[in-house]
Amino acid sequence: MTTVDVGRPAGRQDGVSGWSMRTIIGVVVAIFVLFFVIPIVWLLLATTKSAHALIIENPFQPGSIGDLAANWKQLFDFQDGAVTSWVGNSALYAVGALIITLVASIPAGYAMALTEFRFRRLLLVLTLIVMLIPNTALVLPIFLELNVVGLIGNPLSVILPMSFFPFGVYLTYIYFSTSVPRDLLAAARLDGCTEFQVFARVALPLAAPIVALVAFFSFVQNWNNFFLPFVMLPSSDGYPVQVGLTSLLASTPAFNPSSAGAQSVQLPTLALATVISVLPVLIVFLFAQRFLVAGMTAGGTKE
Amino acid sequence: MSYGFVAPYTALVVAFGVLPALYAVFLAFTDNEGGFAGIANFTKVVSDFRFLPAVAHVALYLVIWLVALVVLVSFLAVVVHAVRVRWLSRTLRFVFYLPGALAGASSVLLWLFVLDPTASPVSGLLHMLGFSSFVQVIVPANLPPVFAIIAFWTGAGGWIVIMYGALNNISPDVIEAARIDGATVVQIARRIQLPMLRKWISYMGIMSLAAGTQLFVEPQLLSQASNAIVPNDYSLNQLAYQYAFQQNDFNGAAAISLLLLVIALALSAVFVTRGGLFEKD
């Protein structure tokens, strides 16, 4: 990221009012920093406490490794290891859809940017429109459709709709149309490459950054998707971890008093489940701030 | 050969974009035996006693959220951009952006903790505001701001980072010239930076508006966590879900989905044609 330093220290002429203004702004920003940070810090600390300590102790006092281990054990013993299979399901759905997304989107974005064919413009406009529709808007219609063909409950009922990722196609399209010159492809054709070879040997190696970008967005979105699997997968065995969290929540007496019993989940255990449910995305996010900006601003930076 | 490149994607567009939309249209205009029903499904869902409250809930939430988003994101982006100390600016952006990793159910769960006075890290604040139990916090009247806070917490950071990038695109010369002419920081923000951000602000507004109409996971989880103090038909998408899965009325569900889809389509069409962000091609 380019940091532009506009400057010499301004404000010598601002005097007292400038100084107090700055203090006020500083305080406001500090409040927002706390607002964004406190929940995350607290959540991480909560996983290291016992249920009792969580309620009576200072919220920001760390617990112990022993309590973390106990919470870990309670979480993974829940319904005979359901959490393990939920995480496995999440990985299957997110990665499966990611692979299909890449296989479908990269060539499509390439073809729309650098080749001519009938319906190219139609496909492009369609892509733009569906890209801006929130992905939850089509979930119930897709459910009704897949219900007709009997796919409900099948992992494919989640993987296939998630693989449809018009935003990825749009990103690829922008990338190829702005950074890969057509002349390069024409030269390869003159050298006798087939169309497929032009794509695989010339265009694809140049596209590594955009493949990574599409993979990032697709993975994050797939992993965090709640509504689609919630609707498509009626049985707990098939839940991804995001939906599994609702089962844990339903077994937490603090939020659902009727659930007290052998299988009940304590608050720190629920906190640990929350952390585990976002861990892969959190790790990806730590390294991908640049990606996020590049993706969201693609095509929009031309003034 | 081009057709080969676009074939898999085209199949997905048709299967999960075009066909479901058409099928929803078909269902919405037919009865459960497939006969043409005119607008009967629409009059049925609109006159459902749960429909207007759901519209009101979603609308109120959207107003609060969008105003907060536009005002606060612009403010924080300008402030972060004005910070000259590099590591501080970078740290601030990172802190704002990181909660974006917690989307969907995870962020709602986290906020259930934060809003439960018995366990909350800010229980003092909650008590000060007069809340001593979780149930008091989530009375229906409080929900629109609660959902707005959750959505802001997860979503604002990404936009702040983007606005920051857009601010970096403003030529330093322009700012410097304004400063020499005696413009204060506030004037520079109001006269130069905010107008130049307008395109991005409208992009953010429309994307957020379209996504916000789809409110589902927040009230769904709260309903579950509150023993149905929060009704399970709080939002429009939940109502559509109730039609499909509790009443087995797919036609009614399709009618609601279609209404939501038309809103989303209209917003995106306005944006594609008027927004100027996708001028390419």
Instruction: List low-pLDDT spans of chain A.
Output: 1-15, 299-303
Q: Which stretches of chain B of 5+ consecutive residues score pLDDT under 50?
A: none
Name of the CATH architecture of the largest domain in chain A? Orthogonal Bundle
SS class of chain A: mainly alpha
Give the key terms.
heterodimer, A: 303 residues, mainly alpha, MetI-like fold, 2 domains, disordered C terminus, B: 281 residues, 0% strand, globular, MetI-like_sf (chain B), transport (chain B), transmembrane (chain B), cell membrane (chain B)
Would you spell out the secondary-structure blueprint of this structure?
The complex is a heterodimer of chains A (303) and B (281).
Chain A: H1 15-46, H2 51-56, H3 65-77, H4 82-114, H5 120-132, H6 139-149, H7 156-163, H8 166-179, H9 182-190, H10 195-206, H11 208-224, H12 227-232, H13 241-250, H14 267-286, H15 289-296
Helix pairs in contact in A: 3-14, 4-7, 4-8, 4-11, 4-13, 5-8, 8-11, 9-10, 11-14, 11-15, 13-14
Chain B: H1 2-28, H2 40-47, H3 51-82, H4 86-97, H5 104-115, H6 123-128, H7 134-137, H8 143-168, H9 172-180, H10 185-212, H11 217-225, H12 236-245, H13 250-274
Helix pairs in contact in B: 1-13, 2-13, 3-8, 3-10, 4-8, 5-11, 8-10, 10-13, 12-13
